[in-house]
Amino acid sequence: MPATDLNLLAINIATLSVLFFSANLLVVRADKNHTYFPLALSFIGIAIVICQTSLKTLAPALQLSTLTLALPALLLIAPCFWLYVKGLTHNAPWRFEKADARHLVLPGLGLLISLITFLLPAEIHYNLLGKGDMAILEQTPVLFRNFIYGLLITTFVLVLGWIAQSAFYLIKIIKRLQHYRNQLKQVFASTETKEIRWLSGLLLFVGVAWAFAAINLLLDNLFIASEFTQDIFQFVLLIKVCFVATWGLRQKPGFEELFSTESVDFEHQASLAVDNENSQVKQSENVSSEKYKRSALTAKMAESIAQKIENAMTSEQLYLDANLSLPKLAKHIHTSPNYISQTLNETLATHFFDYVNHKRIVAAQKLLLESELTVLDIAMQVGFNSKSAFYSAFKKHTQLTPSQFKQQSK
After folding, report:
1. How far apart are CA 367 and CA 374, in angstroms?
2. Mind telling me which residue stretches traverse the membrane in this protein (predicted)?
3. Do 347 and 302 touch, CB atoms closer than 8 A?
């Protein structure tokens, strides 16, 4: 076997090993959290699509069967990954619902075509898929031949549709993440560990990979063919799969710690988290007026809650808790999380994240001027989880870096 083929085989086997091993771990975890199951299905779909290189050498008898299933597997990858992202960003334990079934329409159509293909006579099945030879259709009745042609055209349209499908879900995921990160700030004072930034990196990586494939395709057709295109593609795919597997196994749903919090009224909390996949990010004042339209909170009650919040932060220094969240504050001052959110949004014209971090920055300014502690020590002491989060919040609230603030104050 040529060295190039051996490289392709080795990389393909490594990629398949990571996919199946990770899918197995995700299925085990799915017993407790259904969010992981769609990612496992997405991994299995990728494995079915790319396994031809290994099966051709190691198990030729299975190659035709998996090739027949490649179409539904291809169409399954994007919607399953979308459902995984939806589960990660959901405000309650995610479960597959009837409304989610619409995402499986295209994979279902692909599966129907695969089942019909399996029922074709073995000789026709082998010539069409194994050899790519349609000459055998000339020996079949006209009606049957036209049916096969229709099947092939539908398959071609679905393959083209996969490109549109991938772009559609890519846009949905970007919008979902944007909205989810905005909602985190309504509930948590520290969000950097919950923002799922690796997904943004993955989306960028996918875009670069697509651009790389397009450039190579252009070079192959217009200039000079590259013998290493497949090697590079398989290697990039292996890196991408390892990246997703590593982070996918580590990542927990952003609102998971609220799922078992007895004090949280999820009927109210749903207005704070990502509950509607079609919701869009709007101007804050429009959201506020619509969100609290039916609220029973009066101006007098809001003033009282605002005073309780201020006391908790100023007198009791609750902001020093690095894991402070809206439900924790609500439990501390014995008030509904929804009323606290409404008070912050409407009465104090801010949201939970900015309000708490402002208190932390005020405390940090005092320490910067009165102590010799390092910036990292100060950041941790006032409630931040990382130096980068502290710098970002400090710059936002003061328009200066900590060192610039210290110099200016002197």
Report:
1. 10
2. 6-28, 35-55, 61-84, 104-126, 146-171, 198-219, 231-249
3. yes
Q: 190 forms bridges with which residues in the sheet?
A: none
Q: What pairs with residue 325 in β-bridges?
A: 188
Q: What is the distance, to the nearest Å, from the Cα of residue 125 to the centroid of all Cα atoms in its chain?
A: 38
Cβ 388 vs Cβ 377: under 8 Å: no
pLDDT in tens, 276-292: 434 433 344 444 455 56
Which residues have a Cβ under 8 Å from the Cβ of 309 and sit 6 or more positions away? 329, 333, 340, 343, 344, 348, 355
Q: For each of the domains in the chain, give its residue range(s) and CATH number, in order of start.
A: 3-259 (1.20.1070), 354-410 (1.10.10.60)
3-class SS letters over 240-252: HHHHHHHHHHHCC
Sign of CA dihedral 272, 277, 278, 281: positive
How far CA 29 is from CA of 33, 34, 251, 259, 372, in Å, comes to: 6, 8, 12, 17, 47
**Tally of CB atoms within 10 A around 352:** 24
Contacts of 111 (CB under 8 A, 6+ apart): 72
- Higher-pLDDT residue of 203 and 228 is 203
Measured distance CA(37)–CA(30) in Å, rounded: 5
* Phi and psi, residue 104, nearest 5°: -105, 10
